[in-house]
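tool=predict chain=A
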Amino acid sequence: MTAYAAIDVYDFDSVQQEAQYRGLIEELRCPKCQNQNLAGSDAPIAQDLKQKVYDSVKDGRSDAEIRSYMQERYGDFITYKPPVRPSTWILWFFPPLLLIVLITGWFWQSKRRQLVASGDSGTIVDSTVAALTPAEKAELDRLLSRTNSTDYDITSTEDKK
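tool=predict ok
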């Protein structure tokens, strides 16, 4: 069985034009394929965009002019590096801000845990709590003495019922 593949064959006037073309199609994103550049896409729209880039390079336009034309026509989605403007602030500033908030929260939480562990947390201990009754002390002593034995089951027979 014969396999068919689309091979782009373009004739350039110089090696610089070919390098410019290759660089641009590697840099521009296919509108249909989402996360694939024009060089790796076989979609019809990608073929048309490659032809437009080729024609622009042959006309002597600069990279900036070609990128500008593509962004005007297809929006910021066409490039992997969107410009910084109010409509793209969330793309540029939300991830670093989220990271800063998470790191600050982590430091605050760890500092709080250290203060609680050291007893300097500023918490007020309720001094109105009554002391253990003699029966409760006896039960506590009985449970603690059982932990020193080889049997670590400290539940009483009444608790097991």
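Residues 1-5 have pLDDT under 50 and may be disordered. The CA atoms of residues 25 and 38 lie 5 Å apart.
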